Amino acid sequence: MGGVARLDPRTGGVRRYGVAEGLNDGGVQGMGTDVEGYVWAATKRGVYRIHGVKGRRWERVEIAGLPADVRSLSVVADAEGAMWVATRHGLARRKNGSWRVLGRREGLSSNIVGSIAMGRDGAYWIGYREAVGLTKLSFDEQDRPVTEHFTTRDGLASDYAMFTGVDTEGRIWYGSDNGVDVYDGERWTHHGVGDGLVWDDTNGNAFWADADRTVWVGTSKGLASFFPHRTKVQPPRALIHDVSHGARRWQAGFEGLQLAPGPLSIEYSAIAFENPGAVRFAYRMQGLPSAQWEETGEQVLRYPSLPPGEYVFEVKAKNARGLWSVEPARFRFSVLPAWWQTGWFAIAVGLLLGALVWMAHWWSMTALRRARMRLQAAVTERTAELEAAKQRAEAANEAKSWFLAHMSHEIRTPLNGILGMTQLLLGTRVDKEQGELLQLSKVSAEGLLGVINDVLDFSKVEAGKIELEPATCAIREVAESPVRALRAVAAQKGLKVEFAVAADVPEYVMADAGRVRQILLNLVGNAIKFTEAGRVELRVSVAGMRTAGEAVEAEIEFAVADTGIGISAEQAETIFEAFTQADKRMARRFGGTGLGLSISRKLAEMMGGGITVESQLGAGSTFRLRAPFLVAAAPGKGEGVWAPRREEARERPLRVLVAEDNAINQVLAKRMLERRGHMVDVAGNGRAAVEAVTRERYDLVLMDVQMPEMDGFEATREIRRLEAAANGGKRLPIVAMTANAMEGDREQCLAQGMDAYLPKPVMVEALVAMLAEVNKGQGEGAPAGEVPWRALQGD
Predict the structure, then answer these.
(1) pLDDT value for 588
(2) pTM above 0.85?
(3) Who wins on pLDDT, 77 or 791?
(4) What's the per-residue H, E or C state across 688-717?
(5) 558 forms bridges with which residues in the sheet?
(6) Half-sphere exposure of 611 (CA within 13 A, CB side)
(7) What is the C-alpha radius of gyration for the chain, rounded to an integer number of angstroms?
(8) Residue of 542, 553, 550 whose CA lies nearest to 470
(9) Phi and psi of 491, rounded to 5°?
(10) What is the secondary structure of 344-364 as a DSSP string?
(11) Tens digit of pLDDT for each residue in 459-489?
């Protein structure tokens, strides 16, 4: 501990160096010499050197970036004159007078380096005092480290290194707590106690490769020497020495045996002079369908029964170095058939089976004919029943669809007049009481419209006829639009409505903006409905982000919280069911169909997300809508993007033709348009509308669908035919203004040649937006045949 001894081979004198000569008392772990004639010592408390000839005292070597008393384990000089020091803080290299420390950041497996050796190819082999294996280190042309790691998965017996070394043949030696592994450039060979090593637990840096090619290895139980140049490894020889069949046993002379069916046992062994306990065997039985070599450590094979035939059993052995026997040992024998396996027995059995098969076939064919007749009768009867049931179901479905479409049309037509006239009256001078009465009338009509829309939406969802139409949209604007729309309703109840968007929410996403807005309108509307005092808030945040290829998907959460009446945990399980509210008293008090949440949840699930609720009676509720959306780039010029439309400045006067057969709706449309400064003509049916278009020039046609004499579809087709006959005349914008609001009605209107779709009741906001689009298209001078506002479609 704490010293170095120098032996003079000429005189046999020994000189000791210790604390008095500059060394510390921490103990020397390793030594080496450099090209300048210095002797280096790696100690537990720093690195020291002394000139081998002129030196009298040891000097401490300061390594840049490491503590002065760093614990070092070995020191080596390489062929280029660089000094390498293995420390507990990395591998230090001194080259051209400057130090560089390599560690985990440079690719090493650990910073606790224990040993280093340089191979013939210039690569360095690094061992660690941690169970992380061995590292091969080299440098590229820019002196950047390149590493390759070896562990037990690559053939090492242990990952805990005690030393690394290179012998005179260029082989890499790796000592561990489980013997020694040697690498010849292609494979690792293990040496342990079975190969003559004194003990499997080697000592730290206890390795020396002598010039006479002898290798010395230190272990916990003494020093071992290895003479690879004197060792000639012979492959093992496999022997078959025992064959048992039933009660009989042969230890010789068993070649060519003829055996009756029964259990067979074969024993074998190998002649191996090096580590016989590590010998492995491989065997195969030629004559079996799968005669493949199978490796095993067993020396006895048992076959319960072999089928009759000729066989050759082969076995070969492999020693610890992986060398197989030059030739396998063989045992040829045959298994004779039993009496029931002979030819005459097979013929007799075949005849008997043939007779039985014929009888069974005759009986089965007879039974089959009878069963077929019964089955045909049953199938005919069942087919008739199913056909009748199918016809009844189709008739019921048609009746339901007809009823919904007819009732929707018949209710929307007068409701259009009620809502429209109410909106017109609210735009005139009325006193306070009249205004309140008109507002209540408007709210009631809108409530009735909401019931109709809920029933139709639920019918669409139930039938699976709703399809999402994702497009690029400004998701923050989409989320804010329900808050703006319902803020006035909340103000009437004295509620404060808050809206907040987290900074990391994407600006644009791919989503069906109308359906997202529909869900949020329902959730915010419910929160306002069931809150008597306090506040309602909508907060938008990102719940998670994930990448799929080049696309980025954001899971966005819309949380609607209120300070309302709340619901119990039992009620929370049922509120998403159709026609269900928390309790009957709530339905009588607040109204509603109980369809909104059911529709919203189904829409959320179609988006790939869902809706959850957290609530407590008397303490408010929080509804969370979560759904994944693809993040979209900001739309370029000319690209469409959904965002809530704001009413623009008063539009340019247009000349409008209203094709409508209902007298009240004629007056309503005329008044609504004239109040905004437009000139309006009215046609009572489709034929009159076509004649008016041929006489006058209009900027816009509002076309009802169901009209006498000629319906709106036929009138539209006739107008388009006239436009085509005019050789490229300007396309007249035609907007369907109809009470047909079932699934597919909008698409049908567009397919018939109409440019947009406004369902009744017609809301002033939708009408204003449509007129603004017409003004925009007319003002920009759209070319003939092009309608820039084709995408304007109401819901």
Answers:
(1) 41
(2) no
(3) 77
(4) HHHHHHHHCCCCEEEECCCCCCCCHHHHHH
(5) 540, 625
(6) 25
(7) 47
(8) 553
(9) -65, -35
(10) HHHHHHHHHHHHHHHHHHHHH
(11) 555 555 567 788 899 888 888 888 887 887 8
